[in-house]
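As the next step, I selected for study a record pairing a protein sequence with its backbone structure tokens, which the following lines show:
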Amino acid sequence: MGDFDRTTEDTGNVVSLDHLNVTIVDQWAATLFYMAGLGLTRDPSMMVSVDNMWLNAGHQQFHVPTRPDAQVVRGHVGIVVPDMDQLMGRLEEIKPRLEGTKFDYTQADGYLDVTCPWGNHFHCTGPVAGFKATFGIPYVEFNVPPGTAPGIAHFYDVILRARTTVVQGAGQPAAVVQAGTDQSMVFREAPDEGRGYDGHHLAVYLADFSGPHADLGARGLVTEESNEHQYRFNNIVDLDTGEVLYELEHEVRSLRHPMYQRVLVNRDPSVTMGNYTRAAEYLNVG
């Protein structure tokens, strides 16, 4: 007793990945895809008009404001759903109504590759070991230029005080940045990726909020001083040369942010008027 590797319990400074923000051009199509298809729940309290939606996926969210041009992540988003058969059924139902868009879904090795009407890819699985919730976003994976994975891992390790590793998988090295106990950001080298950055962003919570801010500020990397609870930066850089390795806007929040650990409503997408029973319409996502 007592002979444990205590480092395996460390989580690093990035406490959680809160949301991914991508612009869309049509709230009607977004409602069909995200709610009727993926089974997400529209936030009942925030962004309730017709030009933006916040969508609950377990303890995480997607933010989809309307803009003239849609944003597409260079990579894909991992989603855990409660029931894959039900997901397939819902996607089949919405398919005719999204004809003429980029919407599609194909069975892959161990996951369902679902494409939104504007080209974002979602790798959907049922509940998996290592991710405690039955519904949510365990990771976002980004395609990055060849040779950048070690530098990206070093940036997150030093600047954000995150736990990082560089792994070999899918034929290419990837920097894996731990977020809390069961989420991650993955930066996988992709030699064939030629798309530029279009402005999408993700939000993370940090335990040490001021230390990374000071280091980012010293390098001129802070792009927005939002308020006392939040700031933003865009560039992930080589810490030795200052070269920009990858562009991705980070909305960085403190643990005193008013929305930290906000309780999100998650409906059970399998509930219909035909099978409804009182108080059974909400999911316990874990």
Notes: The two ends are 30 Å apart (CA to CA). The domain at 9-196 is CATH 3.10.180.10 (2,3-Dihydroxybiphenyl 1,2-Dioxygenase; domain 1). The chain has a mean pLDDT of 96. Residues 11 and 181 are 6 Å apart (CA to CA).
